[in-house]
Structures are given as structure tokens and as C-alpha cells.
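Schema walk-through. Below, the input block comes first and the output block second. Nothing else is stored per chain. Lengths vary across the set, and this one has 401 residues.
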Amino acid sequence: MNDGHDVVIVGGAVIGSAIAYYLTANTDFTGSVLVVERDPSYATASTSLSSSSIRTQFSNAINVRISQYGSEVIRSFADMMAVGDNRPDLNFHPAGYLFLASTPEGARTLRENHEVQRACGADVVLWAPDELAHAFPHLRVDDIQLASYGRSGEGWFDNTGLMQGFKAKARVQGAEYVTDEVVAIGHEAGRATSVTLKSGRVIRAGWIVNASGPRAALTARMAGLDIPVEPRKRTSFVFDCARSPEGSARVNDGRLPLMIDVSGSYCRPEGRFFLTGCPPREDVAVDWDDFEPQYDLFEEVIWPALAARSESFEAIKVVNQWAGHYAFNTLDHNMVVGPHPEMSNFIFANGFSGHGLQQAPATGRGVSELITYGEFRALDLSELGFARIIENRPFLEKAVI
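--- output ---
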């Protein structure tokens, strides 16, 4: 079977569906959109296995502004994605992020980041140890030199709700979704021309968008291109707490934030439980189908760090765990968005390195603008383009989790 679409998006999770939504919502775009998704259950998609949070506490202004727009979309999501009587509620918890620093270098980084964040209008404050202890009395702060706390615009939300909201609205607006897998990409004279599906279907394409998450390099290679993105495993743990400190904060109606400890472990409330995780001790690429949790991280790394930070976390018990994949950009841990210089109709939307959910709205809007107008308009994402990959010029972010 031979047919064609103006835009073929490879990958239908949150990034692909956000792009499909923004294209079909744009009245200046009059083409057809096909989204190819290999697993409509999204069981192992990075979207589904994410801790699904959003923060403005980055060190680069563009990342701050990307998340500020993401926060706007999350707050207005029910209105934007309404389909008939269905108004998707993302159950946003605006409890903020809390970064801790225990060294002069760490404190200096928080101050430098804070200047960038405040210049962008982010609602972030710096606290001395006594201010931190007053706000969150369960914390031990003897080793802390400085803390950075997001008072608004940060928190966590329903990950699959965001994806499914984009997807449902995109379909109503005319996007077509097909359950299949891209196995080949036709290209000639510096242009992508078609995709071949596992089912045998060949689809002509005016534009091809790589939104295939941790499999981004596999998709790129089909077009004779390469991108330094690989799957990195992240294990999440849910634990019960004998004496929960939730409700004890003297800010934000008693709600605890997502805390990033100086050890690298993070922790946040999750209903009556807590969600936690940390980077693996050896952060290496894993097989695309390897989702076995790294069980030892909890007892050997996370629990000792949390118990040292708070007496409340001395008596805790794991009740669930799972592993997901970061689509990890090995150059600089930042997303790559835009065309390849040698194949102008092949668009990358890859390498989010754990930030894909919060950056999906701005990415979807940006790719829509590139395809429709040939340029970014609402927010200039060109710093995050592919040219830096070719030039081996990292766009470094100091606030990496």
C-alpha cells in the first residue's frame, strides 16, 4: 500500500502527541499528520514511567522559559484539551522543588542559577539554613550552606494524562494514529522521502519528525543520520513512612516539595506515600528492552541519605518500584529540537534526558512553528538545535538531576 502524509511523526508518546496537537491546532497548517506508534499501551514508554514533575530551577534561561510555558499549559490543560464533556484533569500538585547545597561551590551554583531564574520571572527564593529549618522543620540542616525553593510554577502531575490529553485532542483535530513500527526511512538528495512500516506499508512524507524517545538513534540511523541519544536506566521507588512529615511544612499549606538532597537522591510526597530515586552509580547505556529495577540503590544509597537528612525517614519501607529509561543526550543532557542541516525536512525532537514531560508543550509548539513557518516564533529554541551536535559544542545545564 502506498500513500502519503505531509508530516509523519515517529513515536506517539508525549513528545509526538504534543507535536501532533500543536500542528493540528495551528490554523496556518493545512496538511495531514500521521503518528506511528509501535506500542499503543505505552507500557515501557519514558512518558509512562516518568516521575512527571516540572520545575523552573534551571541554569539556562531557555530551559526556564520552556518550563514556564509548560506550567501555563498544565494549569490550563482542561480547557485546552477539552473534547466534548471530557476535560482532562492533570491533578497538578504545586508543591515546588527544593535544591540543597552543602559546599561553597554548590551554594555558588545555586546563586548563579537563581540570578538566571529571577531574570526570567521565576518565583524562586534562596534560603539560609535557619530559614530552611523553619520552613521544613523535619530536615536536618547542619551541613547545609544554602537552599533554593520554588514557591510557585513547580510541582508534579499526571504523566499519562498529559500524553493522552494531547493525543485525544490531536485526533479530534485530524491527526491519524497508526499502530505499527517504522523499519526504514527513504531519503535521497538530502531529503527524507518516506517511511516503511513493519506491516509493509510505505508512506510518502513531506516531513519526518523523530519523536522516538530512547530509540532516537535507531530512527535517525534509518535516515543515514546519527544523534548521541541512548537509553539510560532510572529506578523509582515508592516507600511508606512510619512517621510521615507531610503536612509539617510552614509554607505552602504544609505541603512538602520535591527535595533534591546533596547526595543526589530526590524525594517527594506521593499520596500517602513518598516517591524517591537517584542516579545509578554507573550511569551507562542499557538495552532498549532492559527494564529491570536496580533494587540495591534503595538500601545502599537512597535510604542512608534520606535517614541522614530527616529523622522521619529513618523508618521507611519500599512498597513499589519500577525502572524507566531516560532518552539521554550524551553530549550535554539537553534536548535536541530542529532539522538536520543536511536533511532539512527531518526534524529531531529528542534527547530530553529526563525532562521530556515538562518540555513537551514548548517542543510541540516549536516543531509546529518550524514546519508551518520555517522558524521558531513564540520561543526561540535554536540554541537547542542540531548544529551543536555536529560542532561538538555542548549547551551545558548545571541543574541536572
